[in-house]
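[INFO] parsing input record for Serine/threonine protein phosphatase
[DEBUG] input buffer:
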Amino acid sequence: MGTLIQRYEKNLTGRDYAVGDIHGHFSRLQQAIEMVGFNPDKDRLFSVGDLVDRGPEAEQALDWLALPWFHAVRGNHEDYAIRHSLAGRVDIENYRVNGGGWFLDMPSARQKQFGLVFNELPYAMEIETKNGLVGMLHADCPVRDWNFLLEALGTEAARTRAIWSRERLQRLDETAVRNIHAVVVGHTPIQEVIALGNTVHIDTGGWLKEGHFTLLDLESI
Ligand SMILES: [Mn+2]
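[DEBUG] output buffer:
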């Protein structure tokens, strides 16, 4: 496993964007970043994870992760791939139902290639912005105070919550996460971006027929 929380220094020359779950729709993502005039020489794109499964272009995830301006946290779908390829610990039927067929049907050496790259993805990112530190996680912050996140992520319970929980949205919980300007998350498709406390849910279902990719400028929050 790589580092649990990856820190990024302030982007002094360009803009920083966050994007929700991609789920194998990299052509649509490419169109979305072109629409905002994304400049790969200066700008950065931060993903809340779930790059793969469900869509037709999941295999491109490795190409995108190799780009110097694209950074992602791990989602529960990367976690499926890691567990299957590196630990052999996955409910195969459940994985296939959730879009993992493309992965299960690849040769095991190729699966392992993905697993090793995904296993380097952090559970959380911290990005310095002019407004303060912005945190990103796939599903929800498992602690009420960002300063305790690193310690908490040492436990499987907190790691699971970080990549699977839908509790905040289900309860419309507006409790702020302390000691962080904002926390950006995905995982649960919604029609429009919604902020609950300082947690901003941005998965507007760019991979769904009726959805779209939201490119959230991190300095706008
Ligand atoms: Mn997810």
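[INFO] The chain is about 30% helix and 20% strand.
[INFO] shutting down worker
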